[in-house]
Amino acid sequence: MAQPARDAPASPDPLEKELDEDIQSIRAEIRTLQRRKRFLASSLLSSDSVQKLTRKLPPALTSIHDEVSPLIHAAGKHSELNHYRIGFGTTAFPFKDPSPAAPTESLLGVRIDICARNGRFAKPYYVLLKSEHARGEVKKRLCVHRHTIPAFIALSKLESVYLPFPVSRKVQGEDDHGEESDGEAIEALKPVQKGRNAGGKQDLRGFVRELRRELVAWHLRTDAIELLREKLGLSEESQLDPAERLSPEARGGIVSLALTALEARYVRMEWEDGRVGRFKLSNTGIVERAVVIGDGGRDKQTENAMTGAGGRVESLLDRLQRRDSRTA
Amino acid sequence: MARSKSIRAPTTASLPNNLRIPSTTPSLTKTLGKLSRQALLDLALLWLDDRNITSFPPYLQPEAENGIDDEETLPYPAAETVEEVRQAYEDLQDRKGGKREVLERILEGDWRHGITLRQLAMADLRYMDDHPASLRWTALELSLIESRQKQSANSPVADWSSSIPRTQAATFVKALQQEISPLVKGHYHISRSSTLPLTFLRIFIIDTPYQSPRQTPEIFADSSRLIYVAFPDSCPFIYTSISASTGSKAAPSISSIATDPRSLQRLVREALPKALSRPQERYTLKATALAAKSLPTLLALRGPGRTTAANGAFSIFADAAIEGSPLDPRPASTVSAEEHMRGGQKPRSPEDKENAKREGETSTASKRQSSIGDSELSPTSKKRRLAIHSRFGTAGGSQNPAPLDRLDIRLLDAPAPTRDDDSPAGTGYPVSLTFTGSDVIGGIRKLAELGVIDPERMPSWMTGEEAISLAVVRDGKRVKRPA
């Protein structure tokens, strides 16, 4: 349909234009419907009742069997995989390194799925580990090759504790030749390995457990702050029940509450009367430290209200409200 | 300048924000002239904002009317109130025209008494926001120097967050100033980027101990005296506009007094980690072998997000392009990569918002790509396409948000593979390769698509997997540092 439009760009016939637009929208609708159909079909195929039915299908119906079973089989396998991912949150998979120079082709992939507050799953996180021969050892050891973990989680620190690698990780990719020039870096690395069970056992489970904990904690922190923002009516999109949102009077004059950085460790607050505050969130969702400064210096009472009574971040606004009503 | 008549005493303070550069300075006109009309108007209105009006007051009609005749002849009669000036710029905003008239109005009209250093800094940063590829940036890694004693104490580590220095902007600038003020006098300006998750620090350096330097005003717009440092959010990297070579370990010649901009820059670079350090928490800067013109590239390759350590073949993981969310009932093989990537963006985790922003820019390009890909393919080219996909992943395609503009490779292997004699590698003749262009990795991918490069035998540095712009390679593998 683009053809006639291109032929006569100078005089776009209003009728033609309208038709073009119609066609465009219809095509878009067809696409979304097709997508929906596919979605529903695979949902149906992977549903429990269909899966059960095929398992006890009478052998007489082989024609249906032959035609449908690969699809049902694939769907069943996929849903089983999904159950593992939802249930355990961490799954492993093999991956083949396509690089011709790689010493070991096969990599061990670890996939971490994390459910966010809105009931959806965040993009999965991956860590790809390769196994390498450590110097002077027969057994292979794992080390992190590539990953999609955000940079504020110190993967190298985790690795050095849970997946110790005896000499230095620079063995791959460079031999003694490279090491000479890199003496300084190795010097810095060595004590790390010596201090913590150098050449000791590798603990992949511990590594993944700590990593997952750190990732979940980050998601929980961001979700908690998003919840507070929604309660205060500061967030544009809200998944919160409008009844749960605070009325402007109940907000206690808080005009801003926002994360200072992606890591969601520190949160900055602002009040109507010019007071500014900042608090630190712990991994367990507790307000660890809080500072509020106004024109008249530190506002210790508000600080205590923020960190006191267990210090859960979710009930932070209730505590502030209670404090306000007590002082009023 | 009237100031120079007053007493000049050497101090260690930084150059004042309100130091005015005469608006007749040609280089000032040039610097401001780089900005677009809209940017100039935005800046002028920002300067006239209530919060800033005391810092950069426009030239208003003097209250005692003594030189009226003189005023009349000027093209821009001085306004009487700030409100009037504001109105003038708002009027300019409403109508169309060249940027010339705005520039002239600023320099010859409302700020005829001079542009302050802070105004110039704001203008420069605005230019950077509009042109994210105007400078060449080098990524450096901040790493903690850990003391030996701390290591031997085998304390159970419970904190797995990266060692990112936390500091207040003002404290940091003060520390930095203390560090370099005996050697370099500077003007510091910190500002948050409006388009990227970055905080910029602009440092103007000059070698004079005096508050009001006697140098020609030209020097204030000298770009070689400017250093930009960008701090990305939540990651242990910083980007500087200082080229990497100045930071090399070449013995600093103490005898020669540092006066040229290059050595001044070196001083600033050395002072940066010190200013970020605290007692018991010392930082050092490490090179990361990445320099690129575009800041989005640096953010993708040395940033806080998922793509920092998964590129090339592994970008399918960074983009989550192979598998969907566990709630997706469709088997992964039946869903296209684009759909996976889009689907993953619905959950609103912080970094996804960034990706969404980026996707908006590249979506038009991706449409073009897919229309090419839909054409019929012969079996061999299909096979090649699969191989290319496995090597490059989603990187280097038209969706690539991280184009490298330059890739320097030094090959230590002998050009002809003579495997029979076991001579130690490195004794051969090293070959240096330099690729330049708007998107080097994308170009290599294109060549592979055309069949010029064998995608299966290509080393991984060609696929962008290493996320570097400078590497020494032996046997197809990267060597960390040249011998």
From TrEMBL, chain A:
Pfam families attached to this UniProt entry: CENP-O
One GO location term (cellular component): Mis6-Sim4 complex
Membrane-spanning intervals of the chain: none
Domain of life (superkingdom): Eukaryota
Keywords, sorted A to Z: Centromere, Chromosome, Nucleus
Span list, region Disordered: 1-21, 172-200
Listed Acidic residues bias regions: 176-185
Cellular compartment(s): Chromosome, Centromere; Nucleus
InterPro entries: CENP-O (IPR018464)
Family listed: Belongs to the CENP-O/MCM21 family.
Protein name: Centromere protein Cenp-O
Top-level taxonomy: Eukaryota, Fungi, Dikarya, Ascomycota, Pezizomycotina
From TrEMBL, chain B:
A GO BP entry: CENP-A containing chromatin assembly
Region (Disordered): 325-383
Biased composition regions of type Polar residues, renumbered to the chain: 362-380
InterPro entries: Chl4/mis15/CENP-N (IPR007902)
Ranges of Basic and acidic residues composition bias in the record: 337-361
Protein name per Swiss-Prot or TrEMBL: CHL4
